[in-house]
Amino acid sequence: MKFKIKRFDGEKTWFDNFEIKHKPHMSVLEALFQIQDEQDTSLAFRYSCRGAVCGSCAMFINKKQRLACRTQVSEIAGEKVLAILPYGPVAKPVIKTGDDIIVEPLPNLPVIKDLIVDMDPFFRHYEAVKPGFEPEHQESKEASMSQDDVKKVDRYAACILCALCYGACPVSARDRDYLGPAALANAWRFYGDTRYHAKEEMLKRVNSKTGVWACDEVYRCVEVCPKQVPPTNAITGFMRKIILHEMKHIFG
Ligand code: SF4
Ligand code: FES
After folding, report:
1. Yes or no: is domain 119-251 CATH 2.120.10.80?
2. What is the percent of the chain where pLDDT is above 90?
3. What pLDDT, on a 0 to 100 scale, did the predictor assign at position 249?
4. What dotted CATH number matches 2-116?
């Protein structure tokens, strides 16, 4: 089985070809380990849990944003890859056929080396929305939530901060100031929490042309998320809340 891997050494970019010995149930991450162990010790990639929990092995595999530890080599060898277009469900041209597997770094983030990207811009946006409880707004006594209220935020709390959505987002690609899908999904997770009392401040943080109003609503983030988090739903939810909030101000 052939792997075509994009390399970067700080100055130049090129592709290297490797042949791997395929084993049953082998993941792309395991194939990268084999290449690193047996053919090129300088190949750089990031991982930690190997179990789709830490989010650190996010890559662009066969032109799709995927976790390397969760992607089976046998499932993607020879797959027909369609172009990912920023404008919704129209006929998509085929951009890849053939058996070789192409592995590239996650788009929309600066590359440090080979398949390792700099996650700083992603985490800067995440921190900008302050997705957490703010002590000055919280009650001192213990607060509990009903099961129904937990369900409303649970799917957003599943985010592992892998940045696959950020790497797939056409707005993040053209506007590096855009907060991005993961930051907004995590903001919504707290906004919807009945124990969170800084809701007005949160609306202010996301109500901008680099916040929710920048979204193209093409659902690419939802499509690639390995944890079924729906960032676009969070973004449209915020849009509705902002409009209601502003109408309340106008009409009292
Ligand atoms: S929303 Fe999904 S794709 Fe985006 S960072 Fe969280 S887990 Fe990853
Ligand atoms: S190594 Fe942790 S998600 Fe893949």
Report:
1. no
2. 81
3. 83
4. 3.10.20.30
Q: Where are the domains of the chain?
A: 2-116, 119-251
Average pLDDT, the chain: 92
More reliable by pLDDT, 97 or 8: 8
Q: Which of 71, 153, 155, 162 to mutate to test the pocket of ligand 1 (most atoms within 8 A of CB)?
A: 162
End-to-end CA distance of the chain: 66
Instruction: Confirm whether pTM is higher than 0.90.
Output: yes
Within 6 Å (CB) of ligand 1, which residues are found? 55, 159-165, 181-182, 185, 224-225, 227, 229, 231
Q: What is the pLDDT of residue 134?
A: 78
Amino acid residing at 122: F
Residues 6+ positions from 185 with CB-CB distance below 8 Å? 156, 159, 165, 221, 229, 230, 231, 234
The bound ligand whose nearest atom lies closest to the alpha carbon of 160 is 1
